[in-house]
Recover the amino acids of this structure.
């Protein structure tokens, strides 16, 4: 049972969700187009941990009956404990950019740069959720930059600004970083198989802290893989058919 | 109350501030195609809270001057190609927002108040580019507490596709209650409906919570498969293959024109050649 990259990442996310040092995750929301975070949440839930999952794009039995604003109202009240965010760019202070690169275009002027889809709810969710796990598979200097071109959502805020939490960690296809909000800085936590401190440094545009010896990200256990390939895949097939077919084959 | 799809499209004036839902929430694709055929110009579109296929189609057809939204995407089919092309060509003015701000601004209009406070957002570059948004100090707090104020947003016209409409103009949208907010906030509401049902939807206790009252609805046009290629609740799923084909075709102006000719407006496309 050799784990796929997707399975490794889902298991790494599940361990971050269950991190005993972090505030409890009783209610987790998962945004659109997030099959790996969704798999991690199902893994946590189906391993017997009491957690409420609100999956935005679940077609059947969608958890929200008050429209798409209900997620934001829940979060505004502090009823969502954990959310996942990514970014076209993420920098060393955990600022995320879902807007684009280059100069911000003047109104109606031709736009030169790479345009990302847009901020979605990130400018709000990042500040109102006690924990955010940043997740971006691509780990390259073009994604992990010294400073994002445009800030969709800020990594840290001045003390007078109301904010419930920050990034807990950043998971990529190469490693796990922990985030220290007091220093607004990432520290390397573990590297995935085949990676090293040197290879991660080479692929990362921002500076980060690292321990003398960097541990390897623990591999998924047989039980975790069996859960992912059976019950988790079954829960996810309706919402993420393409992902499930690619990672686990057709049912 | 019930009029033809083309008559419905004729009621959207050039230059109107038009709000519509994205691809997971009863998107009015048939009406967008009818608007392209009618040749509407200068629309100022509002994504509630983001934008998808219908918006990309309207932008590609030259119907849009401005866009206020939290994201533009075709989901699994990738970026919205005509939106990206129009941005690169400087053909549209884009105002970037964030999802809960779009909801909150409509809720302010729904309540008839001029503005609404919202948490979050401070420190985002969105703010620097939204002169219409403002940060004040919470007047109820003893300590410093900066908070964002958003102006109410009352669209000229709200458009969406409902699963059902009855003789009274009541329309059923199920749990998509953001469309109720949109309807309450908009000065006029034009709806396409998948099917027409006899009687009064509000008479059914089980259906009533998913109904938007005809009080808010100016006119309805019957449009079977009116969300296609987007899915409609449990009626039909999204036509992912068609969306992928659209995304491919719309990468170029020529490909988009061919798409219009085949799926939207054969006569108009021919005239534009």
């Amino acid at each position: 049972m050799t784990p796929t990259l997707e399975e490794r990442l889902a298991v790494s996310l599940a361990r971050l969700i269950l991190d005993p040092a972090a505030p409890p995750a009783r209610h987790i929301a998962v945004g659109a187009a997030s099959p790996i975070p969704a798999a991690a949440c199902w893994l946590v839930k189906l391993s017997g941990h009491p957690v409420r999952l609100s999956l935005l794009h679940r077609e059947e039995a969608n958890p929200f009956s008050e429209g798409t604003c209900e997620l934001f109202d829940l979060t505004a009240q502090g009823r969502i404990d954990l959310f996942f965010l990514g970014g076209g760019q993420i920098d060393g202070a955990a600022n995320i950019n879902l807007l684009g690169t280059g100069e911000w275009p003047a109104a109606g002027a031709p736009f030169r740069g790479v345009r990302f889809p847009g901020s979605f709810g990130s400018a709000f969710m990042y500040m109102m959720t006690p924990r955010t796990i940043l997740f971006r598979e691509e780990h390259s200097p073009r994604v992990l930059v010294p400073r994002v071109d445009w800030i969709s959502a800020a990594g840290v805020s001045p003390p007078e600004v109301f904010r419930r939490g920050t990034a807990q960690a950043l998971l990529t296809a190469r490693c796990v970083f922990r985030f220290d909000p007091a220093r607004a800085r990432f520290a390397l936590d573990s590297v995935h198989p085949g990676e090293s401190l040197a290879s991660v440094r080479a692929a990362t545009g921002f500076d980060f802290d690292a321990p003398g010896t960097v541990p390897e990200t623990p591999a998924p256990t047989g039980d975790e893989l069996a859960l992912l390939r059976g019950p988790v895949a079954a829960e996810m097939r309706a919402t993420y058919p393409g992902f499930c077919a690619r990672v686990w084959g057709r049912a | 109350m019930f009029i033809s799809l083309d008559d419905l499209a004729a009621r959207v004036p050039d230059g109107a501030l038009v709000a519509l839902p994205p691809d997971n929430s009863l998107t009015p694709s048939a009406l967008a195609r009818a608007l392209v055929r009618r040749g509407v110009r200068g629309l100022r579109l509002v994504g509630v809270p983001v934008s998808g296929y219908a918006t990309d189609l309207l932008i590609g057809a030259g119907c849009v001057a401005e866009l206020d939204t939290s994201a533009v995407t075709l989901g699994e089919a990738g970026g919205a190609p005509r939106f990206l092309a129009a941005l690169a060509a400087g053909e549209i003015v884009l105002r970037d927002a964030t999802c809960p701000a779009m909801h909150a601004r409509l809720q302010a209009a729904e309540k008839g108040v001029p503005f609404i406070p919202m948490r979050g957002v401070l420190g985002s570059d969105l703010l620097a580019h939204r002169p219409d948004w403002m940060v004040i100090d919470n007047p109820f707090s003893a300590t410093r507490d900066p908070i964002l104020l958003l102006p109410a947003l009352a669209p000229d016209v709200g458009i969406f596709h409902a699963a059902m409409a009855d003789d009274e103009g009541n329309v059923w949208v199920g749990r998509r209650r953001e469309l109720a907010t949109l309807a309450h906030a908009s000065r006029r509401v034009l709806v396409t409906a998948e099917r027409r049902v006899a009687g009064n939807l509000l008479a059914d206790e089980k259906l009533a919570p998913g109904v938007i009252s005809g009080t808010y609805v100016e006119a309805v046009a019957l449009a079977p498969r009116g969300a296609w290629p987007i899915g409609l609740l449990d009626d039909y799923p999204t036509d992912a293959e068609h969306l992928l084909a659209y995304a491919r075709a719309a990468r170029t102006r020529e490909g988009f024109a061919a798409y219009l000719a085949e799926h939207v407006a054969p006569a108009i496309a021919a005239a534009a050649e």
About this structure: The helical segments of chain A are 5-17, 35-46, 69-76, 122-128, 197-203, 222-236, 241-248. The mean pLDDT of chain A is 94. The two ends of chain A are 18 Å apart (CA to CA). Chain A touches chain B through 46 residues (CB under 8 Å).
